[in-house]
From TrEMBL:
Residues 1-229 are annotated as: Pyrophosphorylase. Residues 260-360 form the Mannose-1-phosphate guanyltransferase C-terminal domain. InterPro entries: Bifunctional_GlmU (IPR005882), GlmU-like (IPR050065), GlmU_C_LbH (IPR038009), GMPPB_C (IPR056729), Hexapep (IPR001451), Hexapep_transf_CS (IPR018357), MobA-like_NTP_Trfase (IPR025877), Nucleotide-diphossugar_trans (IPR029044). Its cofactor is Mg(2+). Pathway: Nucleotide-sugar biosynthesis; UDP-N-acetyl-alpha-D-glucosamine biosynthesis; N-acetyl-alpha-D-glucosamine 1-phosphate from alpha-D-glucosamine 6-phosphate (route II): step 2/2; Nucleotide-sugar biosynthesis; UDP-N-acetyl-alpha-D-glucosamine biosynthesis; UDP-N-acetyl-alpha-D-glucosamine from N-acetyl-alpha-D-glucosamine 1-phosphate: step 1/1; Bacterial outer membrane biogenesis; LPS lipid A biosynthesis. Pfam families: GMPPB_C (PF25087), Hexapep (PF00132), NTP_transf_3 (PF12804). Mg(2+) binds at residues 103, 227. It is an enzyme of class 2 (transferase). Acetyl-CoA binds at residues 379, 385-386, 404, 422, 439. Binds 1 Mg(2+) ion per subunit. This is Bifunctional protein GlmU. GO terms for cellular component: cytoplasm; membrane.
Amino acid sequence: MQGVGAIVLAAGEGKRMLSDVPKVLHQAAGSPLLRHVLDAAEGAGIEEIVVVVGRGAEMVRSVLGDGYTYALQEQPRGTGDAVLQGLPHISASCQDVVVLCGDTPLLRPETLVRLIAARREAGAAAALLTSVFENPYGYGRILRDDSGLVEAIIEESDATPEQKGIKEVNTGTYVFTRDALEESVSRLQPDNNQGEYYLTDCIRILRSQGRRVVALTAPAEETAGINTREQLSLAEAILRKRECLRLMEAGVTIRDPETTYVDKGVEVGRDTVIYPFTFLESGTKIGRGCAIGPGVRICGATLGDRVAVQFSVIVESDIGDGCQIGPFAYIRPGSVLAGNVKVGDFVELKKAQVGPGSKIPHLSYIGDAVLGAGVNIGAGTITCNYDGVQKHQTLIEDGAFIGSNTNLVAPVAVGKNAVVGAGSTITRDVPADALAVERARQSVIPGWSKKKKKGNEENESE
């Protein structure tokens, strides 16, 4: 969007959150509150954005990165002072300046587009976004003149009992012409009960000059700010609902949206079915025709088409087409599964590369390992990858068969089509097509159990 800049206020202390983390960095649907606000601004086409930071400034910078301009509000002297710190960083080519609160994660890009258009179409000095709240406590109230035009905004702490009964509130989202903002913010005075510079007073200043201010009303669900942990949970529920709706509109079946947790930006292909108590976290991509859940957590992983996962955890791994995962499997970061791999119950993979058609059906740990195609891993197989100092790799080539209850002590390799007998502890490489068996010879002592039982009975009778 041409000629528009934005100042995002992210310097608030957030005292009611009772946290060492800046309020704007608390997460909802997998992203910081501030990230949601920035996404809305960028989604509206605003390219020039200044973030005003205060408490926890370095923490905010480290989370957002270097893609934004930052202005520092050294002392918390109010929203007007925060804008005053950010305004010099907005280039002269921006004739519209949007002001946003960093704790309003539900704001939609299209609402910002409408607000900017409302100011321009009315030729107004400013446009503000309002909402009607059944419980407006804590918000500035909108005062209108007899003709219905916005006259001023009165903060909760300065409002009279009559004014506190007004349900239309200021949401903290504005669009000013640059000249109107520069002039009005420079005239702010801290003559209020909080001793702060209120940005809301800019509206009164502009109206006193006979300049026009218009308002656009948005649903309360979209404009609510976050000040408490309860409000954070309510906002997250709304964001989750939006994400579930987005996926369903794209051809995904979600059996129970109320118990499905989808972070912002998760991608899921059509005809995939998501069952209850599934968590799809940031960075996750799932293909078509999959069955996910119930009881699944997938974090930052990529799944191909026709993958089935139930009662399992997959973190930062790549899962090929047609794989079957679970129940009760744990696939840790760095694992890569080719197509049609089976990872069954109580199997843990860590930095494992598994070739097509291989099977690890149950009760195994495969870590720092490379498995070829068509490998079969018997129950209870362990890759002993750690010697107490460093990790070592296990290589199992195509077609190898590993018997149950086997220990593969890395570094070690099992060749193509080799067989390892059940109960073996393998410490040396096994050549292709060989059989490796390592176990103590079985001894059978006839009648031993009866003799032992008789001896025990005699001891008890003495």
